[in-house]
Amino acid sequence: MTQPKPGSTWQHFKHTPETPHLYTIICVTEAGELPMDAFPYFTVVHTETGALLDLMASASTLGRWIYPVQVEPFVVYLPVNDNGKWWARPLSSFMAPDDRSPTGQKFWPVPTA
Hints:
Number of strands: 8
Strand order of the largest sheet: 5-4-3-7-6-2-1-8
């Protein structure tokens, strides 16, 4: 299965023309250590708990994002048709199968034109 990449668009299985569920991938986070005085770059909402997660730029790798207390990567995404919240979901949950989906997956990439 294709992995989410920054800038790609993914569709959730609940998507319909009336209630769109299309998302732009912002990043896939990694675990990391940061100094205590590091400032968060942006805050996202955990889709399963509603907790706010502060993501920080990696000091060691340009273009990478860190969530210091994570135990697995998170996919950070933004609804295509909404300038609202940025969401984070564990990668394993994002890529999980779902019996309610026509593709058998919870999310899948939207083909580019």
